[in-house]
Amino acid sequence: MTALARLPLPSRFARVRFGLLTVTALLAAGVLIASVLAAGYLNRIDEASRYNRTFDAGQTLAELLRLQIAFATANEATGIDGLRLRADIFKNRVSLLGSGTFPHPEMKGELYPRLVEAERQITTLLGEMPSDAAAAKAVAVLEPLVQPLARMTSRSHAMAGDNVAQTQTRLRNIFGALTGVTLILLLFGAALIAFVLRQNNRLDRTLRTDSLTGLANRLAFGTYLERQRIDRSRSMILVDVANFKALNDLHGHDFGDKVLRGIADCLSAAAPDASLIARIGGDEFAVLFEGVYARQRSLAACARIEEDMSRPVMADCGHIHVSVTIGFRALKASDAAHTAEMFLKEADLALHEGKSAGRGGVTEFRPAMMQAFLDRRRLQSELRGSAERGETYLEFQPVVDLRTHRTLGFEALLRWEHPELGLISPATFIPLAEESGLIQDMGRWVLSRAIEEAASWNADIFVAVNVSARQLADRGLVAFIAQALAAHRLPSERLEIEITETALVDNDGVAIETLQGLRALGCRIALDDFGTGYASLSYLQRFPFDKLKIDRSFVEGCRIDKNSSAIIAAVCDLASRLRLGIVAEGIETAEHRDFVAQAGCGLGQGYLFDRPLPVARVLERLAREASQPAGLSPTIANEAFRAECVA
Ligand code: C2E
Ligand code: MG
Ligand code: MG
Fold first, then answer.
1. Measured from the CB, is residue 430 less than 6 Å from ligand 1?
2. Does residue 552 have its Cβ closer than 6 Å to ligand 1?
3. Alpha-carbon distance 385 to 372, whole Å?
4. What is the set of domains in the chain, with CATH numbers?
5. Torsion of CA 340, 345, 347, 350, to 10 degrees
6. How far apart are CA 570 and CA 576, in angstroms?
7. What is the pLDDT of residues 352-397, one digit of tens each?
8. Is the whole-model pTM more than 0.70?
C-alpha cells in the first residue's frame, strides 16, 4: 500500500462516503426484512389454499348427518355393516378434528368433548344393533350436536376467510413498502449517478489543470493541440525560465513557485486573445493563438511578455531579475499538413535554439533548425559504437607553471573522427552523448584511456579528465576510477577531475557525494570554465575544490575589456584566499600570459604553450623538457618547439 493510499480522505469525502454506506445498509436491511415477511405471508396464503381446518369441521358435520340418517333408516334388511362403516368414518373425523389446532377456538371447550362423548355412546349403541330402540337413541344422541356443529363450522369458515383477508392486506402492505424502497433506491441511484458525474467533472478539471498556476497543464495542452483546427492560421509561443533550477536552489522553492505564478499572470495579461495558455513543464509555458493575424498577435504578446519580465521579482534577499527565453512557430492556413506533433516540435526547436545560444529573447522557427536537429539526431545515433569502431581518441593539452613554464600536467580532450564528416568538435558531440546517456560509457572509456596514458609518462605530472553531470550521477564511478588507477598503478593524486558548474546545478545531491568519494580516493577536483555559470561563488561554498579554471572568455578580453581583467584579478585573489590552485584557460598570446601571471595566476593552458597534442607528441614534449637545461626559458623552448611543429 502506498503512503498516498494510507492518507485519510478529506472530511467532506469521508462524510459523503459514510452517508452512502449508511443509506445503502439501511435500504438493504429494509429489503431483507420485507422479503422475509412477504415470504411468510405468502406461505400462509399458500397453506390456506391447500389445506383448511374449516373443511375438517364441515366434513365432521356431514359425516354426523350421514350417520344419523344411517341409524334412522337401519333395519333388519339393511344389516349393520353399512352402519359400522359410517360410525368408523364419523369416529375418524372426530379424532382428526381433535388433532392439531381447532378450526375455531370455541370448539375446544364444549363442542369437542360432546362429540367425543357422542362417539363413545354410538359405539355402545352399535353393539345393541339391530334394535329400533338403539337406533332411535343413537339418532337422539346425535341430534343435539347438529346445530352447534353447523354453527361452529360456519364461524370457523368466516374466521379462515378473515385470516386470509388479513394476510393479504399485510402482504399488500409489504409490497407497498417494497415498492417504496425500490423508488427510494431509484432516487438514491439517480443521486449517486449525479454525484459521481460531478466528481468526475471535478477530477477531469483537476487532471487538466496545473494546480500551482491554475493554467491548463500538459495533458490539456496535448489534447487541445490534437483537436485543433488545422485549416486556419495558428501560432505557438513557448516560454522557458532561464536557470530556474538555480533560482529554486538559491532562493528556495517558495520563491520558485512565486516566479512561476508571476509568469502565468504575465502570460494571461499579455495574451488575452490566446486560445489556450498552459504550463507544459516545470518551468515551461505554452501560449496558442488561432485565427486571423495569429502570427502578429503572438509577436505582440512576445513583446509584452518581454517588457513585463524586465521588471524584477521581490525575493527575501532583494529584487531578482528573472529572464525568460521565448521560441515561437507560426503556421499559415495553407500549412494544414503540419501535425500537432510537428507544430510543437518546431516551436520547441526555436526555443532550444534561443536557449543554447544563451541569448534569451524571442526566436522564431526557421527550417534550418529542423535540418540541424535531424543532423544532431543522425550524429547521436552514429556516436553509439564510435569507440568500438576506433573513431574516437584522446588528445592532451599541457597545463604549465606560469613562473617556470614547465609542464605540470595535461588535460585529456576527447576527439571523434567521423568517417564522412571528419573531425567533430566535442562541443557538438558531448552534449549529444549527455542527452542520450551514452556519456556514461564514453566517459569511462576516456577515464581509463587517460589513466593508462598518464601511467606511461615518465614524469610526476597530472592528467585532468573532464567529467560531465550525467557521469557524476553514476554511483559506480568512484569504484570504477579506483579500479582503473589500481590497474595502471597511477597514484590517485595524479588524476584531476574537471567538472563544470552545470554538473552541480543538474544533480547536486548525488554529484557532491561522488565528488566526495573521489576526493577521499585522493583525486583532485577542479571547477572548469569558472565564471560562466549562474552561481559560481555559491558552488565554491558548497564543495571544497582544489583548483579553479578561469574560463577563456575572460582571458580573451583581458587587455581590451576592463571588466574581464577586473574579474581575473578578483578570481585570482579569491583563489589565493581560499588556497585554491588557479589555471587560466585559453592563453593564446604572450600578452595574455603576462597579464594573468601578474594578476596572480599560477598555471596556464592555451595555444601559446601548445594545442591539444596526440599521444606521440605528448611524449616528445616531455622528452624535450626533460633534456632541457634548467636555465633555459621554457617559453622560448616552447615557441621554438611550436615553430618546429609548424615547420
Ligand atoms: P574545456 O574542458 O574547457 O576544454 C578546453 C577547451 O578549450 C578545449 O576545446 C581546448 O581545445 C580549447 N582550448 C585550449 N586552449 C585554447 C586556446 O588557447 N584558445 C582557444 N580558442 N581554445 C583553446 P575542445 O577540445 O574543443 O573541448 C571543448 C569542451 O568539450 C571542453 O572544454 C570540455 O568541456 C568538453 N570535453 C572535451 N573532452 C571531453 C571529455 O572527454 N569528457 C567530457 N565530459 N567533456 C569533454
Ligand atoms: Mg576542461
Ligand atoms: Mg574549460
1. yes
2. yes
3. 22
4. 7-207 (1.20.120), 216-365 (3.30.70.270), 389-614 (3.20.20.450)
5. -170
6. 10
7. 999 887 767 899 999 999 999 999 999 999 999 999 999 999 999 9
8. no
